[in-house]
Amino acid sequence: MLTEENIKQTLELVAELPVFYGEMSESEEESEYVLFYRDGFERPEKSSQITIIKRIVIYVCKGEITDELIVAIVDAMEKIGLKFQNSDAALEQIGDTDEYNDTETFVFKHLVKRDGC
Fold it and tell me: What is the pTM of this model?
């Protein structure tokens, strides 16, 4: 069974950054980090089976996010049972400076329940 702890441990190995579930507290604030959280559930409209899918969002903030890191995260998450859907890139300002970190927000899905096969 896929758990938040499985996801966290896998991300820690691949990203080599502090990993947090949900959000960071003020005492944990880092300039480079990974956040992940459950974003809800859905059922596909066109399905002969009852399928419930959990969405997991992974947010990476790092000085430079390389293609190699993106591929490593996608590969690692798919190996533990998540299915990659998409990602979006942006920048995040570092405090009150003129410096920015790359950010990448990944969306993965995971089959939770399936009846009526």
Answer: 0.86
